[in-house]
Specification:
By secondary structure, this protein is of the alpha/beta class. The protein has 8 helices and 5 strands, in the order H-H-E-H-E-H-H-E-H-E-H-E-H. It has a 5-stranded parallel sheet with strand order 2-1-3-4-5. Strand 1, helix 3 and strand 2 form a beta-alpha-beta unit.
């Protein structure tokens, strides 16, 4: 397969996935994150690898991007952004604890966790989400493949059903979710 054929195939797959996006889940996500402003609560975003980059991008767009335009002021942070903290936790007590330990004792019932995981099976994501559920915080799970363990643990599931291993397509759609949320709130921001 040459580059053009591969590109056409990839883009056709992406178009099919875009058409399958559950718009109800997006509406529920908007409602959940807007409630954090009213409740003066925080949004924590977590992810590994490419999903970590999406978490940072989401914080940039929904945090600083909207705040600097005087649109809406979300209290939002990515727990993947502090490399010294993450590596210290991973080194001292295990990688499966890097998000959980940052949430432990700080997470409140009205807070929201946005957990981004293509497989839905990352041990550090699952441990943090299980803790969030114990505390009573809302969990928004962004998954791909078959949803893994994260999908059924999520209060709101933004799921992209793909073949296992199609990280690029799943991460593309998760990035679209970020841009869609930002663009919507930029115009229709009333809380």
């Amino acid at each position: 397969m040459n580059v053009k054929e591969f590109s056409l195939d990839y883009l056709q797959q992406l178009k099919l996935l875009i058409d399958q996006i559950d718009l109800e889940s997006i509406e529920r996500i908007v409602i959940a994150i807007k409630q954090t402003v009213l409740k003066k609560s925080r949004i924590y975003v977590i992810g590994n690898g490419g999903s970590s980059a999406i978490a940072s991008h989401m914080v940039n767009d929904l945090g600083t991007g909207l705040r600097r335009r005087d649109v809406i002021n979300f209290d939002i942070i990515s727990l993947a952004d502090n490399t010294p903290v993450g590596t210290a936790i991973a080194n001292d007590i295990g990688y499966e604890n890097i998000f959980y330990m940052q949430l432990k004792g700080l997470l409140k019932t009205d807070d929201v966790i946005i957990a981004i995981s293509s497989s839905g099976n990352s041990p550090n994501i699952i441990k943090a989400v299980e803790y969030a559920r114990d505390v009573g915080a809302r969990v928004i799970g962004c998954t791909g493949f078959d949803g893994g363990k994260l999908k059924p643990l999520s209060d709101i599931s933004f799921h992209i059903e793909t073949r296992k291993g199609e990280y690029g397509l799943v991460e593309d759609i998760h990035t679209i979710l970020d841009h869609l949320l930002h663009s919507y709130l930029l115009v229709y921001h009333k809380v």
